[in-house]
UniProtKB/TrEMBL annotation:
Signal peptide: none annotated. It comes from the Archaea. This is Molybdopterin converting factor, subunit 1. Coiled coil: none annotated. Pfam families: ThiS (PF02597).
Length: 75
């Protein structure tokens, strides 16, 4: 599985992309917690799985592409 990280998440993980092996199907939120320090401290985030916005409960496998970005606000 390929995880593409943007913004603060790439800083926390120390990489813009992480490639990991996923056996079977797992929840994307569980995987992200394992590879990104302080993942749960960032409350507002967007998870995209294979080009579609997804929740942390979506199951992913080894061939999926996940993109993770923080929600930015401002005015």
């Amino acid at each position: 599985m390929l995880i593409k990280l943007m913004g603060l998440f790439s800083h926390l993980a120390g990489a813009r992309e992480i490639e990991i092996k996923v056996e079977g199907k797992r929840r994307v939120g569980d995987i992200l917690r394992e590879v990104i320090p302080r993942f749960d401290e960032i409350r507002d985030k967007i998870i995209i799985v294979n080009g579609k916005v997804a929740s942390e409960d979506v199951e992913v496998g080894d061939n999926d592409i996940v993109k993770l970005m923080p929600v930015l606000s401002g005015g």
